[in-house]
Structure to design on (218 residues):
């Protein structure tokens, strides 16, 4: 379905060659570039920060979709906005003031995303629907690529689609998306799919040919 955005996660790309990896997946039809920021505190892994986002920004012609798996969030919002993030997504579990965080993201000029861990009920979005441009349903526990899709989240996506109705809010799925699981979440109402291992598997910066087939298979 061409109306569904595909957002390759560079967490599964070659860390020494992000610029070329991004150009390769965009040439093969990627709609957004998903950037996983981890702090070793909110999640048990470390990746990169705003300086790296700024460095890759010139290589992104589409949309820089920044997923913040960090706590606290608010002190870093301006830095990620200044680095060129189009979408900044924060976790509802990252602190007591998600409403303030979403306000700050929009205030910094970015689109505001709200991410929900697998154990978090969908009802938390109830009083935030006028504050968000995207809701990210995590279909793995955040922290690592290549994990198994958690099937109980499909029902959460269905409930979220009913709550959102026709509002212009993306439902993004993150974790374990592949050609088997993608149709399940799209049928439930998702319209943006993050995919790391499913996009980058079988290829490399020097052999990016598989990326296109992988994207089209999702
Ligand atoms: C997980 C990250 C995901 C991850 C997805 O914490 O938020 O974006 O890169 O990787 P795959 O598609 O391999 O599950
Ligand atoms: Zn992510």
């Amino acid at each position: 379905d061409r109306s569904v955005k595909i957002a390759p996660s560079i967490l599964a790309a070659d860390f020494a060659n992000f610029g070329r990896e991004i150009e390769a997946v965009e040439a093969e039809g990627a709609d957004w570039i998903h950037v996983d920021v981890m702090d070793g505190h909110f999640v048990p892994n470390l990746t990169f920060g705003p300086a790296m986002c700024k460095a890759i920004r010139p290589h992104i012609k589409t949309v820089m979709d920044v997923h913040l798996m960090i706590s606290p969030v608010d002190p870093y919002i301006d830095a990620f906005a200044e680095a060129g993030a189009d979408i900044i997504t924060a976790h509802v579990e990252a602190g007591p003031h998600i409403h303030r965080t979403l306000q700050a993201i929009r205030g910094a000029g970015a689109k505001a995303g709200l991410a929900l861990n697998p154990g978090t009920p969908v009802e938390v979005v109830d009083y935030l629907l006028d504050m968000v441009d995207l809701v990210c349903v995590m279909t793995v526990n955040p922290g690592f690529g290549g994990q198994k899709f958690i099937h109980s989240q499909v029902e959460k996506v269905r409930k979220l689609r009913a709550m959102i109705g026709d509002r212009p809010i993306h439902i993004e799925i993150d974790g374990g998306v592949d050609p088997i699981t993608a149709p399940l979440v799209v049928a439930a109402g998702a319209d943006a799919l993050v995919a790391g291992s499913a996009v980058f598997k079988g290829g490399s910066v020097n052999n990016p040919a598989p990326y296109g087939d992988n994207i089209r298979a999702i």
